[in-house]
Design a protein that fits this description.
The chain has helices at residues 16-27, 53-62, 65-71, 109-123, 167-171, 239-247, 254-258, 303-320, 326-356, 363-373, and strands spanning 8-12, 31-36, 48-52, 73-75, 77-81, 87-92, 104-108, 126-129, 133-138, 143-147, 152-155, 157-160, 179-191, 199-203, 209-214, 219-227, 268-276, 282-283, 286-288, 294-295. The protein is α+β, with helices and mostly antiparallel strands and 378 residues long. The protein folds into 2 domains: 4-72 and 109-178 and 275-373, 3-Layer(bba) Sandwich (FAD/NAD(P)-binding domain), CATH 3.50.50; 179-272, D-Amino Acid Oxidase, Chain A, domain 2 (2-Layer Sandwich), CATH 3.30.9. The strands form 4 sheets. Strands 6-5-14-15-16-13-17-20 form an 8-stranded mixed β-sheet. A 6-stranded mixed β-sheet has the order 8-2-1-12-19-18, covered by helices on one side. Strands 3-7-4 form a 3-stranded antiparallel β-sheet.
Length: 378
């Protein structure tokens, strides 16, 4: 078998999938350059993230589970409440990562990114921040890359992990683009009210969904989901007012959370998108992973998990096969596509039922079927 140490890979994008595939390839001895457009490596971006068991399984594979466990808040159930805070029912979460891992861990997104950054720094990858790929010139043996800093590099494979609006995807001629689903979400990090020990979701009220997730012993992230509005029509200085106006219509723990929705700079407003590249996920020796290939609304909290699983499957194939060819990259997509499509379609359907006002939708059934299927290893 070809010695992995003779191979060189460029990873474009330092988010979850890019960091993960870098770690796994470096473990096998592959030389990896990672470039990230943001000078701060997105180390301070985001409020919170919900990591279900199948995401935790990959984080354990990366060797960072202990840090994640120590930094996050583990729980095993999901509550559904009325708008006034009355708990309607509590469902046990499915342990999609197996019995050794919690069903769910909530954590602060910047903390997860910092854990992955530290691991990538320690693994021996060459990292360049504030750098993009300006051109890719492929031939049968590899890819020549010209970078925004004027330098050039030569690689056996380029992995595009540069997100939903991937410039690399466009550069190699894949024309699939994300499409809004009609929903948008307001998010904020806040102190954890005493008694919040799981995610609770309220359907209905002033918004379609209002929820929160504990992210540490002291913090949560809270969110409200509404219909899409023209982002240009919402001044950034009004973000706290906009989110607070929606959140004030909810009871239970929400009055305490609302007290902390006071800084517009701390509030994030994002549309929900559906994205799935229907054709091949590669062109020659350039391959997509994570949000560059697919993205879904957070209604199932599976976005990060799908990206991490992509990295795991691609790295497995690259480190166990002698030949890096079209067949390998086709097999990677074939393994991922049914699982990813299931999650994307289910995530979009949950939102569509709300938008259409379907009152008898089988939400628990769809969620249970999807999460049960995710117990299988990717």
């Amino acid at each position: 078998m070809t010695d992995p140490r003779s191979r060189a890979v460029l990873v474009i994008g330092g988010g979850a999938s890019g960091n993960a595939v870098t770690l796994l390839l470096r473990r096998a001895g592959v030389a990896v350059d990672l470039i990230e457009a943001k000078p701060d490596w997105n180390a301070t971006t985001g409020s919170g993230i919900t990591l279900q068991g199948n995401a935790l399984r990959v984080l354990r594979e990366l060797g960072v589970w202990e840090q994640v466990s120590a930094s996050g808040f583990a729980f095993g159930s999901l509550g559904v409440t009325a708008a006034d805070g009355t708990v309607l029912f509590v469902a046990e979460d499915i342990q999609t990562g197996g019995p050794e891992l919690p069903a769910t861990v909530g954590m602060q997104r910047p903390r997860l990114q910092q854990i992955l950054i530290e691991a990538v720094r320690a693994c021996g990858a060459r990292v360049r921040l504030g750098t993009t790929a300006e051109s890719l010139d492929q031939d049968d043996d590899g890819v020549s890359v010209r970078f925004s800093d004027g330098t050039e590099g030569r690689y056996d494979l380029v992995i595009a992990a540069d997100g939903l609006n991937s410039a690399t995807r466009a550069m190699i001629g894949i024309t699939d683009r994300p499409e809004p689903t009609g929903m948008a979400i307001w998010r904020i990090a806040a102190p954890r009210p005493e008694g919040v020990t799981r995610t609770d979701l309220a359907y209905g009220g002033p918004a379609y969904i209002a929820g929160y997730c504990p992210t540490s012993e002291n913090t949560i992230y809270a969110y409200v989901v509404e219909g899409c509005r023209d982002r240009a029509s919402i001044p950034a200085r009004s973000y706290a007012d906009e989110m607070r106006a929606l959140a004030e219509g909810y009871g239970g723990f929400w009055p305490e959370i609302v007290k902390h929705i006071d800084d517009p700079a701390a509030v994030n407003y994002t549309w929900f998108d559906r994205h799935l590249v229907e054709g091949p996920w590669h062109r020659g020796r350039v391959v997509l992973v994570g949000d560059a290939a697919h993205c879904c609304p957070p209604t199932l909290a599976q976005g990060a998990a799908m990206s991490l699983e992509d990295a795991s499957v691609l790295a497995e194939l690259l480190t166990t096969r002698d030949t890096w060819d079209d067949r390998l990259l086709t097999d990677y997509r074939a393994r991922r596509m049914p699982r990813v499509r299931m999650v994307v379609d289910a995530s979009v359907q949950l939102g569509r039922w709300l938008l259409d006002g379907v009152r008898d939708a089988d939400v628990p059934g769809l969620m249970n079927r999807t999460m049960s299927a995710l117990k299988e290893t990717p």
